[in-house]
Amino acid sequence: MTGGYEAVVYDLDGTLVRLNVDWAAVKTEVSRVLREAGRETTDADMWSVLATADDAGVRTAVDDIITEHELAGADTAARLPAADDIPRDVPVGVCSLNAEAACRRALAAHELADAVAVVAGRDTTPAMKPDPRALEWVTTELGVAPADTLFVGDSASDETTAERAGADFQWV
């Protein structure tokens, strides 16, 4: 897997584990908070809704709702096959749109925490994927350049993040 890379960074949800999150319940709760703030809810994805929440001054409340559900979902997350392929010969990181605490909880639940040196969730850095700064922060913490890193993920957003950061990408 490492193929000459100095580090490997993974997305979390859908790549190493599948968080057991009731996204319909999250959407209902988030919609209520946004309506109370005078904002219409849309069918936008949850990560786009964070920008709306930020504009409405309710980002913390919305993020807390999402994080609460992610933490609960981390406890019963399903381990995915890529988790069995984490290399032990290069530094490994996680760069996720999930909250850092949920990432750490899911990694610990599947005895993967010791294999991952750096974890960045949406609340770890000022920028979220697909902004390359999130992945760049992880590679800096790992002590490697993005160009020497393989980013493994399951979404077009992951691929875009890698491309923008100058890292190679591999679909899981």
Automatic annotation (TrEMBL):
Its EC number is 3.1.3.18. GO terms for molecular function: phosphoglycolate phosphatase activity. It is an enzyme of class 3 (hydrolase). It comes from the Archaea. Keywords: Hydrolase. One of its GO terms (biological process) is DNA repair. This is Phosphoglycolate phosphatase. It comes from Halobacterium salinarum.
